[in-house]
Each structure stands twice: as structure tokens, then as C-alpha cells.
Target: UDP-N-acetylenolpyruvoylglucosamine reductase
Amino acid sequence: MPMDYGEQRLKIHENVPLAPLTTLKVGGPARFFARAESEEQIGAAVAFAEERGLALFVLGGGSNVVIADEGFDGLVLQVALRGICVRAEGERIVLTAQAGEEWDDLVRFSVEREWAGIECLSGIPGSVGAVPVQNVGAYGQEVAETIVSVRCFDRRERKFCELSRDECGFGYRTSIFNAEERDRYIIASVTFALARGGAPRIVYEDLRKHFGARRPNLAEVREAVLQIRRAKSMVIDPADPNSRSVGSFFKNPVITAEEFAALSERWGPVPHFDMADGRVKLMAAWLIERAGFPRGYRKGEVGISTNHNLAIINCGRATAREIVALKDEIQRRVAEKFHVWLVPEPVLIGFDKSIV
Ligand SMILES: Cc1cc2nc3c(=O)[nH]c(=O)nc-3n(C[C@H](O)[C@H](O)[C@H](O)COP(=O)(O)OP(=O)(O)OC[C@H]3O[C@@H](n4cnc5c(N)ncnc54)[C@H](O)[C@@H]3O)c2cc1C
Model:
């Protein structure tokens, strides 16, 4: 039986298995677990953890986390605030979504109303509250382009605050939420500005190929993105074992132009994107494959998706330890061959900090 905590009657559960709450389906239990359905309950959860000197981890849809087999010896808080509020400002639609809304439901909702700005981010699993954390991106779009502000509970100041887009410090798969201010903010809602009747973004090669010279509408772009993602097992589908993953396990590494020149001299043409700041972004999938981990690679209960080199998958009964062992092996072999260190994209919870 859960206990009720404080005036908010926050339900605190004990020893809650976390694996079923994640897409990778590994990991042990949370010592304490609570689901906050209001901002007041977020405050209550923080107070509960502080009173007992417990570590607090905020869980969304569990699609970007690897939980240790030992579980999490603290409070896991799931932010389950729901609701969407929309305001029209001329051609701009200002939309505030609560953190517990499903991200892809929000994309569908916007596309159906012909509001442009997040259509290429169709099919990404997880909650709205998580999208600012790693500045979710795909197919030529990032949430940073449309986020206006993020409302959060500031655990340091013990109060709610509104951070502007600039204050969020967005970059490639990063923000203050997963970097310098990690663990400080609990996101309650996110406000986006979308373009009413705006044109879809078609910059990504796969999308350009898909449509050729034709100018599709937003709904067609969403369908195309979903189709491309399904073919790569990048949409969660219980019937597709390749989607028992966290999506891309590694970020695409960014190196200097000099490092890139040395790499190309040694290995010939290396697929890459030139970045605006002069640096070069490599394709982690290419490095992984060349380092000896082809699609379909398997080691015990873990492996690499048969549809995508970047996805480490749980083939059935994997442990978190096995997932991390494969991650380590990939990092080591890529570093030995290319002198490039791959940084994991998911958050590793309950592990020794030195394993990243
Ligand atoms: C099949 C698949 C495909 C994917 N494709 C993509 C992709 O194309 N692009 C991409 O960028 N990502 C992708 N991902 C990764 C993942 O879906 C995103 O990072 C997503 O935003 C994570 O959301 P979540 O709610 O599941 O967060 P979780 O995995 O639960 O948490 C991720 C991080 O966010 C933090 N967090 C979550 N909610 C809050 C909150 N309310 N306040 C503060 N911190 C919070 C957590 O503490 C944790 O650090 C993919 C994952 C899978 C499984």
C-alpha cells in the first residue's frame, strides 16, 4: 500500500520495479516512487526526498535511460501533469504543454491543425517534459527552434521559475538540464511557438529523397517521418524487438577540422556534416560499423538492431550490466581504431559515475 505524504496527499510507493517503465526494459527497483499530477505535488516530492536525505531522479517515459540492475536507492519522481493550452498571436501559435503529455501526441495535435515547427520530430517516444533536456532532434529539426520557455521547479531556490529559450543553453543533444545544471530543475511545462499554416521543414536527405520535387504538406511529412522511422525501428512497437532500445545509444561525435583531416587521410572518405562553427560532426553509426559492430551483432542477450547501427537492443532477458558492457566495448574499439570517444546519449542511472 502506498503512503500518503503531506497536504498534497502525494502517493509514495516503495520498491517499484523500474524496468517496465523504460523502453530498454532493464534495471532494478526504485526504493521510493511517486507520480506528481500537479505542481504542488512536485514540491511535495522534493520535500519528501529532502526530509529523508534521498537522491531524487525525475523519470519521464523512460525512453532515454539505462537503469542499473541494483535499481535506484532514492526517490524516482514521474511528472504526470497533463494538459495543453493554446493561444493564437497572429500567425504564431503559442502552445503550452504540461510535462506529462506524450510528445508524439503533441506533434500529431499540432500537425492536424497545420501548425508547423515540430513535424519532423514525429514518432519520438517519451514525454513533453523531457524534450528540452537533450534538445530532442531528428530529420533536420530540434525542439530548441520552437521552444519559447520552460517552466520548472528550481530545486536550489525551492520555487517555480520560467526559463527563456536562451537560458536553457541549447546545443546538439544538450541543454543546461543535462549539463551544467543537471538535477537542478524539474520541468513542469514547456511553451512552444509554432507557425500557423507554415511550410514543413524538408532539409534531411531521407525526406528530400522521399518527396523528390513535390512540396508535401505537414501531414505528409509526419507520415513520411513515421514510415522512415519504422523502417529503422525508431518507433516503439511492442511487436518489433529491434525497438527495445533507447534509440541512438551514442551521440554523433563532433571533432575539429584538423582532427577530421587526419582521420580522412588515414581512412579515406568519412561521412560527416560540416558545422557552422567550423567543426565536423561524424556519424557514430559509421564508426561503430567500421569498428566491427555490424547491424544484427549479438552478444548473449544484448545486440545491435538489425535496422540501425546506433541502437543497442535488449534481445530478451538482458541485464543493465550486459548493456553497459557492450557500450564499453563499442567505445573502446571505436577509440582504438579512430581515436574518437563516443559519448552515450541516454542517462545512466544508479551506476558509478565513472562509467560514462
Ligand atoms: C526508439 C527510440 C527512438 C528515439 N529517437 C530519438 C530521436 O530521433 N531524437 C532524439 O533526440 N531522441 C530520441 N530518442 C530518445 C528519447 O526518446 C528522447 O530523449 C525523449 O525526449 C526522452 O523522453 P522520456 O520522457 O522518455 O525521458 P526519460 O527517458 O524518462 O528521461 C530522460 C532524461 O530526461 C530527464 N527528464 C525527463 N522528464 C523530466 C522532467 N519533467 N523534468 C526534468 N527532467 C526530466 C530525466 O531525468 C532524464 O535525465 C529515442 C528513443 C527511442 C527508444
In short: Residues 23, 57-65, 79, 99, 124-127, 129-131, 133-134, 136-138, 177, 185-187, 234, 236, 243, 245-247, 347 surround flavin-adenine dinucleotide (CB under 6 Å).
